[in-house]
Amino acid sequence: MKSIPIKLSFAEEVKTFVNIVNRYPFDMDLRAGRHVVDAKSILGIFSLDLSRPISLEVYADDCEDLEKDIAQFKI
Q: Could you tell me the sign of the dihedral formed by the alpha carbons of 3, 51, 10, 32, in that order?
């Protein structure tokens, strides 16, 4: 598992992020404090407090391509 801190501020960023992560076959979660949602679920993401940084938890060892694709969201 790999944890990547990210920031999603606007609805358009959330839409772009979900489109990117849905291209990958492995499971991913977003964690904000004690709340955890599926990173591929746009409704789940909107249930989080997006004013704070959140952590993307990727359940795969080989995720370099994903990291490149989401570079614009990393903090």
A: positive
Q: What pTM did the predictor assign?
A: 0.94
What is the Cα Rg of the chain in Å? Answer: 11
Q: How far apart are CA 49 and CA 59, in angstroms?
A: 23
Contact 73, 55 (CB under 8 A): no
Type of residue at 67: E
- List Cα–Cα distances, 40 to 23, 55, in angstroms: 10, 14
Residues 61, 75: Cα–Cα separation, whole Å: 21
Q: Quick one: pLDDT at residue 53?
A: 86
> What does the pLDDT average to over 51-72?
94
- Look at the block and give the residue holding tokens 């849905």: 22
